[in-house]
Amino acid sequence: MPNQGKHTPLDAVREWVNLRIYNSKNRVIKGLRYLSVPISIAAVAALVVFHGFKLNAEDQAWVEWILKGTIGYYIFKYVIEFFYSFNPRQYLRESKWEGVLMGYMLLNIISINLLGIEPMTQLGQYLGFQQLDQFFMVVVQGYFLLFIALEVGKASSLLAHLQVSPPGMLVVSFILLGAIGTGLLLLPEMTTTGKSLSLLDASFTTISAICVTGLSTFDISSVLSFKGQMVLMVLIQLGGLNFISFASLLALFSRNGMGLRYHSLLQSSYSAESLESGMDLFKQVYKLTFTIEALSAVLLYFSWGPELHFDSVGQRVFFSVFHSISAFNNAGFALFPTGLMDPSVLESYGLHLVIAFTLIAGGLGFSPLREVFSWRQIKARRRQPWKHLSVNTRLAFWSAAGLLLVGTAVFAMLEYHGTLRNLDTTGTLVASFFQSATARTAGFNTLDFGAMALPTIVFFVFLMFIGGNSGSTAGGIKTSTFALVFLSALSTIRGETKVELLRTTIPLELLRRAFSVFLFSISLIFVSVLALTMTDAHFGLARLLFEEVSAFCTVGLSTGITSSLSATGKVILMVSMFVGRVGTVTLAFALSKPRKDSATYRYPDAQIEVG
C-alpha cells in the first residue's frame, strides 16, 4: 500500500479550508436546518393553496414567488453544506438524488431566465408527450415534499423525546396520514365541480386509500379531478408501504435520538435478524416495490384495449401508473365508473391478467419476494444449492397457490350458470382466476358481486377473511395465521403435544399470537356486523357481513351498498378498515401498557372442561 497517507495538493487545500471553517460549521449547519422549518412550512402551504384553490393572477404570482424563493434557499443551502463538508466527494455520493434535483432546478432557472426555454416543455414536444412538463413537475413536487419532510425531521429534536412504542408510532402515523389526506381531499380543486367533498366522504375515501381497501362512497373517476386522483394515488402508495416507511423514515430523521426502538418495528414486521438486515430490507422493499410497479405500469400501458379511448399520451400514462400502484398495494381503486366491469375494459383479458399478477405479487409479502427474486439471494442459492427457502417463504407461496387454485375452481362451479353464463371458455377461466385473486384483499372486480349467488358470497367471505401473506400490502388475518390455527387444532385432535410444519417446530409464542389475531378479528367483525344490523338492517345480514369483512380485511369488494349506508354505518366501516390495516394485535400493544411477567411463582394448574 505505497500510496497510503499520501496527500495531493487538492487534499492539502481542502485540509486548510476545513481547519478554517471548523469552528463555525456546527453553528451554520444547525442554523440553516432550523431556518428550513418555517421556509418548508411556507412552501407546503403555498403548494396546497396552488393546487387546492382556483387563484387569480395576483395570488398565483405570490404563490410562485414563495415557491421560487424556497427553491433558491434550498439550492443555497445545498451549496453551503457542500462547502462545509469535510469530505465533499462523500457528501455528493450521500446526497446524489438531492443534488440531481437541485441541479435540475438550477438548470431550469438559468434556461428560463436567460434563454427563455423551458427544458421539459421542449422535450415533451419533441417526444410527442405534450403533458411531459406537467407530469414531471408533479413528480418533482412530490420529491420536493419528501425532501421538505426529511429536512423538518432533521431540524426537529421533538421525535427523540417522544416515549412512544413502535406499535404506538405506527397507529399515530396512520392517524396523521389520514388527517392530512382528508384535509387535501376537502380542497375545492380536488373535485371536477370545484366544490368541496363532505367531511364524511373525504374521510371515508382517505381511510380507504391509506388502508388500501378500495371501498368508496362515490365514483372517484367522475367526482375527483386529476389533482384529486393524484392525491388518492399518493395516499395508496404511502398506505401500502406504511408499515416500514414510517418506522424507517422516522429512524432516519433522527438516528441518534431514535435508537433501536423504532428499528425494532422493522425487525418484528419483516423478520429481520439484526438492525443492519432490517435497514437493508427497508431499502430492498422500496426497490422491489417501485420495480414491480414500474414493470406493471409498462405492461398496462400496452394492454389497454382499443375500446378505451385516451385523450392524450399523458392520460394513458397516468391510468397505467395509477392502476399499477392500486394493484400492487392491493387497494382496488379503479378510474372507471363501474370498476373493471366497465365495457371499455371488460373483455381486455390481458389487462386483467397483468393486474391479477401485480396484486398477487403485492400480496405475497416483501420478505418472500426478496428471498426468491433478489439477485443477491439468487446468487447465494447458486453458490449453495443445498440451501432451501425459509419456512416463511415456502408457506407464503404454497398457501397463495393453493388458495388461488381452490378459489378459481369453486368460483367457476358456483357461478357457471350465474355471472359466468355469457362468457366463453377463456373468459370463464380468466374471470374465475381474477375473482379468486382479487378476493384476497385486492378489491378489483370484473363481475357484479351484487348479482352473485349466496353460496358465492359466503365462500368469498371466507377467502377475504384469510387474506394475503404477512408483511405484505394485503389484509385479512393472513395465510400464516390461518395455517397456524389450523395446524394447532389438527395437532390437538391427534393428541400431539407440539405443532410441526415443514420439519420445523412452531414456537408457542407464535401460536399464541395467531390465536390472538384470529380471536380479536372474529370478535371485532361480530361486533361491527351487530352494529350494522342496528343502523342498516334493511340491506340484509349477508350483504352487511360481506361489506364488513371486506372493510376489516381491507379487500374493497362490495355488493353495491357502500354509498347507500347510513352515516353511522360508514363510520363503522371506517373504524373496521383502520383496525384491520393496523392489525388487532398491534393496536392492542399500542393501547396497553406492557406487563412484567413474574417468574418467581406459578399458580396451580386449573381443571376446566373444554368442548
Report on this model:
- The protein is 69% helix and 1% strand.
- By secondary structure, the protein is mainly α.
- Among the domains are: 1-156; 395-591, no CATH class.
- The chain has a two-stranded antiparallel sheet with strand order 1-2.
- The longest helix has 44 residues, at 9-52.
- The radius of gyration is 27 Å and the shape is globular.
Main beta-sheet annotation: 2 strands, antiparallel
Based on CA atoms alone, the radius of gyration comes out at 27 Å
Mean pLDDT: 81
Order of helices and strands: HHHHHHHHHHHHHHHHHHHHHHHEEHHHH
Helix/strand class: mainly alpha
Number of helices: 27
Our measurement of the CA-to-CA distance between the termini, rounded to an integer number of angstroms, reads 76 Å
Work out the number of β strands.
2
What's the helical proportion of residues?
55-70%
Strand order of the largest sheet: 1-2
Strand content: under 5%
Low-confidence stretches: 253-261, 271-276
Shape: globular
